Amino acid sequence: MSTGLFSAIDALVPAAPKSGDWDNVLERAGVRVSLPARSVRVVPRRRLRRRRVWVAFALLLLIALLATPAFGVQGIVLNLLGRKNVSFPKAASAPNEVKKQFADLAIGAPERWAPQVIAGQARVVGTFSVAGHQRKLWVAPTRRGGYCYTLERSVGGCRLTRADRSQGVVGASWMGGAPRSGVLESIVTRVAGDINAPAAVKLTATYVDGTTVDVPFVWVSKPIAAGFFTYDIPTRHWSKQHRLYAVSLFSQNGTMLGRQVFPFALRAGPRPIPTQSSGPKERRLPTRPDVAPSQPLQQGEADGFAVVVGHNGSVQFTQTGTTPILKRLVGESAGFGCFRLTKEFGIFSVLGLSQGGRFAPKVGFQLNGVGTPVDACEVQASIGRTWPDVLNNRAAVEIPFTVKGRAFFADRAAARDLALFVRSHRMQELRREPPTQALRDIRARYGHALSSSRIRITQEGNGLRFSETSPTGKTFFVLVQHVKVRRQGVVAEQTRITSQNVKPYTRVF
Amino acid sequence: MAVSLEELERLYRERYPRFRRLARAMTGDDERAVDAVQDAFARAVRGRLSFRGDSSLETWVWRTLINVCRDQRLAPVVEETDAAESTAHLNGHAEEYAELRGAIAALPTRQRLIVFLFHYADLDQETIAEVAGVSRGTVAATLHQAHNSLRRALTEVAT
């Protein structure tokens, strides 16, 4: 059995807290819980009088603070009411990964829909609880007076222009129940979104049973000038009789500024199950781009295909010959794409767009959001991908335009070769063995194939280091080590990938 | 043969993380997992006087927990959970686990339950056999089959 597999399964479900609430069990069971009697302390009269004086003083202080904006306490009180003001200029800058995510929103978007997010200005403006997890809220302004937001590992959205702000004071998106869990899809289980009413002080969720609850939100100052919220609907409201009906926004004087109602509709029947024939190879790819490639053109040809990329991002693939791989691809699925190699916010990335569908001799589309000139184009085959790879870890067609593009293909082939080997079925088992024995068994099992490959395996500490050097001189590695983990109070040994550098070329597990 | 409250409390305190983890795997949601464990033990407390002793106390409570999850028709999670949420703890490796999640979801119900009991309840094959109401040999064979399916799914993943 494979520890690699075991640790992957293990990682899917997080470890649980050590203790639960036994009193709550007894309460649910209808068993009376007897609490230890509290000791009653007699407070002397003089101390009681002193205490009253302190309470009065604290009250006065609170009133004074509330009346003085400079103390910043109003924000706290607003928070109690539901609204918390956040200064965008004073908020912490978002991590580079997040800035890059905002920048990547442009990829694939047609020009008129391009978000034009000023990703470099992305900031962290709050933390919300989502399904028991603390999630950060990131926002970034757009060049056209709008904003984009994203809640860590959850929802996100954009109001791209100033005009978009007026389209709905409350922009709530919601998550419905899962039919197989017994909760109807029309039942709202989580609601999240943005608010575009500066006067808003209270957001209220109203349930069909007449109960209400105030939903906290943050109001972010200019240039964002918008509010954001996310709220997990309690499970007691996951039924038709108690479901969420609407979220309403109120001003200080109680005027309703906006409302979003969540209609309830029963689905007529079960969701249709997609059939086998609806796979990617059934998708017909466009034969030409919407607009012809404009000058200056990038042109290249290799592996039976010619490609033309225009300055406007239009790309046209045309088959000019055939190869054994292209013959095998007829009737199968393939991915046609081009990419630029960039370093945005200090992160090396492959900025590209590809269209997947049934292999065709003529394919054309727009590289929206990628930018030109590109470093390379390729046709990815849907075959291979087990070690040793029949495609020699290459795409079916690789057309580099630049030195960087050529080097990328070589580096990716090396990284893929290494990753496919380390994550292969047999290796998942061998990785579990003690390093010396594993090394011996790997050589016995793969000796011949390994000697003709570029993969090197060495013992490192309590594990194995797999490495492969690309013809460009770049060395990729994956370090698999035996580590001790404490599980249920028992220390056990597991094998884990503790370090690797094959991203973003490929992935290993 | 009745069970005392103290015995149940001891089991709850000693094994809580395991019960909670299995419930989390079966429901896909922390809040619902807490609820399921609390309800299962509440059922056990209420039914402690009618416990016949046909199996061990622990086996009985494991079965109760599984029944609670089923009674509430809580989803086998890996199928239904919001992927973003359920993979929150994977520290950015969510995509890498997506295939495994899908493969587990695709397992037949009994195979999946036995996998959950083995990995998340951390039970030995003997106890799993008792809980699942099958022979020990069936547990071993089912686990072998399930692991093979999952391994195949992982190794077939595209680069």
Distance between the termini of chain B: 58 Å
Structural class of chain A: alpha+beta
Helix content of chain B: over 70%
Helix coverage percent of residues of chain A? 10-25%
Radius of gyration of chain B: 16 Å
Main interface by residue count = A-B, 54 and 66 residues
- The overall pLDDT of chain B, averaged over residues, is 77
Report Rg of chain A. 30 Å
Shape of chain B: globular
Describe this structure in words.
- The complex is a heterodimer of chains A (509) and B (159).
- Chain A is an alpha+beta fold and 509 residues long.
- Chain A contains 9 helices and 26 strands.
- Chain A is 21% helix and 35% strand.
- In chain A, strands 1-11-12-8-7 form a 5-stranded mixed beta sheet. A 5-stranded antiparallel beta sheet of chain A has the order 2-3-4-5-6, with no helix packed on it.
- Chain A is globular.
- Chain B is mostly helical.
- In chain B, α3 packs across α7.
- The longest helix of chain B has 23 residues.
- Chain B starts with a helix and ends with a helix.
- About 14% of the residues of chain B have low confidence.
Sum up the structure in keywords.
heterodimer; A: 509 residues; alpha+beta; five-stranded mixed β-sheet; five-stranded antiparallel β-sheet; 9 helices; globular
Quick recap:
The complex is a heterodimer of chains A (509) and B (159). Chain A has 509 residues and is an alpha+beta fold.
Q: Any chance you could write out the topology, listing elements then pairs?
A:
The complex is a heterodimer of chains A (509) and B (159).
Chain A: H1 3-12, H2 22-29, H3 45-67, H4 73-81, E1 83-86, E2 92-93, H5 96-104, E3 123-130, E4 133-141, E5 145-151, E6 156-161, E7 170-176, E8 188-195, E9 200-207, E10 212-215, E11 217-220, E12 226-232, E13 244-251, E14 256-261, E15 298-302, E16 305-309, E17 314-319, H6 324-329, E18 333-344, E19 347-358, E20 362-366, E21 376-381, E22 397-400, H7 403-422, H8 425-430, H9 435-451, E23 455-460, E24 463-469, E25 475-487, E26 490-500
Parallel strand pairs in A: 1-11
Antiparallel strand pairs in A: 2-3, 3-4, 4-5, 5-6, 7-8, 8-12, 9-10, 9-13, 11-12, 13-14, 15-16, 16-17, 17-20, 18-19, 18-21, 21-22, 23-24, 24-25, 25-26
Chain B: H1 5-27, H2 30-47, H3 57-71, H4 83-86, H5 94-106, H6 109-119, H7 125-132, H8 136-155
